[in-house]
């Protein structure tokens, strides 16, 4: 959970600064979380078994009208484990292509009982992405709805007379009711892995994929003890207990999903899967929190942050709200009744390494109430060190790279060479706690304040956050280069005027090829998660170069930034043009356009930072994502009083139809547009 704290700062035990050979002006930027209880943390699976034995009829999953007890989840998991036992061995990686549902929960428990390694991929992870992963990793099978699995896991070319035949599949007795439930679920066993495919380490409990600069995702393996240590703190911090309801809201492929899933199952609480539309609209989210009586929830920063700007909804039972995945720029207002935790942590450090708790009641007492909140101090078992380029700790107040150590660390990547580069041995003269013999280089730029709390400042490298997901622009460029019509690609991440980051790709065509931006974007969607698909593509004859003969990325960022705020006069692009010509004045304000058309088109262009967008384009095809949809719906309601739902937006064939819906609703309600928008 990349750019939350105990109830009091005293729990962040900051050790005295160790002595080093360098002269320092003050305490060093080193801090340690509270020491966990002696001995190994409680086993994750054994905690679930304890609650199943203690309160077998207590609800474990509540999905609308459907409820599964701890006994029922355990029994279903046993049945799934029995169906797989002869095919899946301890230590095998199993890719799980299910959405948030009782079926997903049962699968996670079943794989844990088998000793297999749970690798959540999401319901539709993309054919080519799965193809790459299954080539690089020794994966036993994929579990999912057979209709949604990639083609290679539905049919095989090994049938009689070389005709395609069904892949070896095992039908699994998983629940098939609920908001996101599969119609059917199978374990699909396709062809074997590629040469040199990597297995998970023997101690691995789960694995997740992170972005890779080579164009191929990196797999991180995490041990049960690391997750157990975090869960022990999380339960104590939130008070999660029987009778509570914990959301199952985060995207399945995003590593906080593992925390929310096992937090509920190891506390005797009930998990509540969120319907898909909840992730598109922050107002729908708060209604769902209320209707589902959610008491603890984890949410991505871009979805939660707008809620802190509006009056806090009444009637919520929500006590704790953990926010992560991007830099949080706002503190909760005085009327926010939930404790808001600003969470930070890469997947390589088991979801969450630091935390900062905020309460609305403290808003008036905070001197820097208008400033962005810090990412806090280390949670128990975590050591944080802010270092210079040589890996030496810097004085507090000095910027540097954040390195993490302690029980939080993952086992590393499934690529040993990459693990050796990113997990380093700390300097011998640092007085670190016993067992802190590795430090993970996060690549994040931070500053430790005098009180030991960390402020997040950004990335040291090119890695960026889009809608809460870490993305390597190099991976996005590599995805474009899979197309034979592309000679090379460069992806940059300019910021929009309101501070949001977007991706823009610049592509050099292969000799004789004439690719279009639309065609390239369509093709690349099979390789990338939705957050990694660029908002614009520029087709160029050549890339600008700097004095060293390297691609001048700052120049490309400058071009992309100017294109988003200063339209180029219409006309054909010249040599080396970095994108399509800007829209003409008639396209900016079409003749006879309605107030709804001007509002929708102007807002979408602003949100996508894509001034060439037209009313004839479909919202998602133009680059719209779930989070952008939420912002569009909020803007429409703010400006017109018309409240659309996400499914209504997504059903419309183009933006003109969306605008017509806004105009019709506004006319029916006789709501005048606010001045300044028409």
The gist of it:
This protein is an alpha+beta fold and 678 residues long.
Describe the 3D structure.
This protein is an alpha+beta fold and 678 residues long. The chain has 17 helices and 30 strands. The strands form nine sheets. Strands 1, 20, 21, 23, 24 and 25 form a six-stranded antiparallel beta sheet that branches. The chain has a five-stranded mixed beta sheet with strand order 5-4-6-10-9, with helices on one face. A five-stranded mixed beta sheet has the order 15-16-17-18-19. It is globular, with a radius of gyration of 25 Å. The two termini are 41 Å apart.
Descriptive terms for the model:
678 residues; alpha+beta; 6-stranded antiparallel β-sheet; 5-stranded mixed β-sheet; 30 strands; disordered C terminus
């Amino acid at each position: 959970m990349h750019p939350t704290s105990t109830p009091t700062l005293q729990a962040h035990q900051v050790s005295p600064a160790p002595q080093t050979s360098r002269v320092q002006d003050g305490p060093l930027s080193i801090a340690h979380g509270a020491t966990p209880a002696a001995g190994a943390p409680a086993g994750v699976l054994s905690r679930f078994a304890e609650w199943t034995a203690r309160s077998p009829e207590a609800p474990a999953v509540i999905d609308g009208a459907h409820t599964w007890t701890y006994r029922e989840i355990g029994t279903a998991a046993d049945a799934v484990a029995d169906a797989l036992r002869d095919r899946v061995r301890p230590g095998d990686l199993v890719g799980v292509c299910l959405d948030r549902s009782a079926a997903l929960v049962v699968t996670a428990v079943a794989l844990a009982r088998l000793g297999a390694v749970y690798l959540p991929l999401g319901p539709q992870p993309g054919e080519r992405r799965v193809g790459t992963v299954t080539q690089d990793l020794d994966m036993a099978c994929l579990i999912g709805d057979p209709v949604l699995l990639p083609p290679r896991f539905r049919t095989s070319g090994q049938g009689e007379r070389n005709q395609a035949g069904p892949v070896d599949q095992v039908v699994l007795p998983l629940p098939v009711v609920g908001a996101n439930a599969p119609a059917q679920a199978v374990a699909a066993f396709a062809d074997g892995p590629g040469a040199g495919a990597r297995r998970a380490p023997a101690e691995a409990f789960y694995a997740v994929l992170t972005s890779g600069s080579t164009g191929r995702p990196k797999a991180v393996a995490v041990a049960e003890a690391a997750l157990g240590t975090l869960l022990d703190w999380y339960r104590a911090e939130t008070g999660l207990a029987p009778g509570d309801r914990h959301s199952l809201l985060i995207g399945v492929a995003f590593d906080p999903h593992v925390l929310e899933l096992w937090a509920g199952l190891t506390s005797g609480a009930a998990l509540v899967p969120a319907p898909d539309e909840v992730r598109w609209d922050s107002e729908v989210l708060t209604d769902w929190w209320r209707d589902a009586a959610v008491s603890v929830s984890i949410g991505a920063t871009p979805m939660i942050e707008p809620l802190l700007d509006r009056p806090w909804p009444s009637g919520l039972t929500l006590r704790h709200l953990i926010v992560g995945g991007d830099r949080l720029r706002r503190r909760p207002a005085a009327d926010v009744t939930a404790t808001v935790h600003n969470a930070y942590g890469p997947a390589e450090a088991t979801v969450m390494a630091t935390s900062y708790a905020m309460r609305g009641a403290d808003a008036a007492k905070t001197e820097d109430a208008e400033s962005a909140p810090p990412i806090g101090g280390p949670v128990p078992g975590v050591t944080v060190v802010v270092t210079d380029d040589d890996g030496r700790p810097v004085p507090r107040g000095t910027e540097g790279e954040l390195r993490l150590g302690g029980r939080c660390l993952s086992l590393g990547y499934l690529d040993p060479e990459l693990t050796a580069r990113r997990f380093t041995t700390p300097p011998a003269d640092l007085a670190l706690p016993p067992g802190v013999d590795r430090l993970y280089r996060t690549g994040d730029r931070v500053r430790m304040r005098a009180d030991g709390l960390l402020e997040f400042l950004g990335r040291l490298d090119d890695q960026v956050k889009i809608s809460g997901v870490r993305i390597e622009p190099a991976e996005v460029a590599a995805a474009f280069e899979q197309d034979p019509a592309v000679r090379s690609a460069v992806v940059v991440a300019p910021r929009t005027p309101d501070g949001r980051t977007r991706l823009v790709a610049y592509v050099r065509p292969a000799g004789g090829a004439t690719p279009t931006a639309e065609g390239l974007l369509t093709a690349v969607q099979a390789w990338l998660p939705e957050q990694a698909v660029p908002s614009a593509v520029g087709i160029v004859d050549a890339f600008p170069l700097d004095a060293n003969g390297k691609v001048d990325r700052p120049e490309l960022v400058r071009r992309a930034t100017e294109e988003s705020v200063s339209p180029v006069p219409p006309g054909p692009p010249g040599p080396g043009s970095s994108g399509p010509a800007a829209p003409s004045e008639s396209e900016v304000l079409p003749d006879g356009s309605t107030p709804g058309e001007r509002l929708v088109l102007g807002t979408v262009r602003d949100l996508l930072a894509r001034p060439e967008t037209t009313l004839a384009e479909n919202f998602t095809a133009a680059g719209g994502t779930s989070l952008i949809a939420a912002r569009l719906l909020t803007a429409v309601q703010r400006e017109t009083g018309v409240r659309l739902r996400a499914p209504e937006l997504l059903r419309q064939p183009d933006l003109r139809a969306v605008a017509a819906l806004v105009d019709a609703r506004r006319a029916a309600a006789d709501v005048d547009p606010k001045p300044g928008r028409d």
